[in-house]
Design brief:
The chain is of the alpha+beta class. The chain contains 2 helices and 4 strands; from the N terminus they run βββααβ. Strands 1-2-3-4 form a 4-stranded mixed β-sheet. The protein binds zinc ion (ZN). The site of zinc ion has 8 residues, from loops.
Length: about 80
């Protein structure tokens, strides 16, 4: 599977229903809500990869696997 943030190669990790978990060599490990994935696909939007990686890095000080839903999505303009 590919990374939901940078579209690079990523490992898919089983997690709870409604979420996608990936381990990307560039972005690290994160969980993203399936609703957000579908919304982005629907609207043809993509993440701002650099900003998302910085956000994830900051989150990892507090939680090992950050959750990303619509409130956290930093999108490319
Ligand atoms: Zn990635």
């Amino acid at each position: 599977m590919s990374c939901l943030i940078c579209a690079g190669r990523a490992e898919t990790i089983d997690c709870m229903e409604g979420w996608e978990e990936r381990f990307c060599s560039q972005c690290g490990r994160y969980r993203m809500s399936q609703a957000l994935v579908l919304t982005l696909m629907d609207q043809g939007q993509i993440f701002d990869t650099g900003q998302m990686r910085r956000w994830l890095e900051a989150q990892r000080c507090a939680v090992p696997v950050p959750f990303i839903d619509a409130h956290q999505a930093l999108l490319a303009q």
